[in-house]
Amino acid sequence: MFPKAGSARPATAIATLLATALIGACSPTFNWREVRPAESGIGTLMPCKPETAQRAVPLGPTPVVLHMSSCDTGGLTYALAWAELGDGVDPDAAQSTWETASRQSLRAVGPGTAVPVNVPGAAMATKVTLSGQNHQGKTTDAQVTYIRQGRRLYQAAVYGHPLPEDALGPFFDNLRVTP
Fold first, then answer.
1. Helix or strand or coil: residue 39?
2. Which fold does the domain 30-177 belong to in CATH?
3. How far apart (Å, rounded) are the C-alpha atoms in residues 46 and 77?
4. pLDDT per position as a tens digit, 103-130
5. Which residues pair with 24 in a beta bridge?
6. Whole-number Å distance between alpha carbons of 14 and 8
7. Of the candidates 78, 50, 47, 79, which has an alpha carbon nearest to the alpha carbon of residue 66?
8. CA angle 146, 149, 151 (to 5 degrees)
């Protein structure tokens, strides 16, 4: 339906489009794009073109293939990882193992603060904020969301120091688990 003559809607829409284009043009560091890694069942926005990798990790009695899409921009690392749990792998134990490995890798100080969050399509999601050190010994913070849906576990994370809220929102607020 078209707006009435004299309506401010077209002008507002054009102004919004121009402002969005100008902001994007002025901020090449954060070039947000939709990312839905093949066969992952999850999607979000990432500020840079991710690279992908996979490897076997011990999340249960037998190794599980962990898939990851990640990229670095603006001094931050964005990562979206997932694993399909096989039969005989306890999802609670696998998630606990993954969380422990993440804290150890970051050399996190303490267990972090965990709060439940809503991720559309997910049966369960928890956000954890951590502080520790990267492999170079530099202070690094992490915001991590662990997600579970069926036999799949997911981890969405941003690492860096500091972690500016405007660089986190688009990534975490757009997480969606799809069938």
1. coil
2. Protein Transport Mog1p; Chain A (3.40.1000)
3. 10
4. 999 999 887 889 999 999 999 999 999 9
5. none
6. 10
7. 79
8. 105
**Which structure tokens are listed for 13?**
């829409």
pLDDT band at 22 (very low <50, low <70, confident <90, very high): very low
Task: Give CA–CA dist 65/70, Å, rounded.
Answer: 16
Query: How remote is the C-alpha of 7 from its chain's centroid?
Result: 40
The ranges assigned to domains in the chain are: 30-177
Instruction: Say whether pTM exceeds 0.70.
Output: yes
Work out the number of other CB atoms within 10 angstroms of the CB of residue 127: 18
Say how far apart CA 87 and CA 18 lie, in whole Å. Answer: 52
Locus of tokens 């860096």 = 160
Say which DSSP state 88 is in.
T
- Residues 6+ away with beta carbon under 8 Å from 166: none
Q: What is the pLDDT of residues 3-19, one digit of tens each?
A: 444 544 444 434 333 34
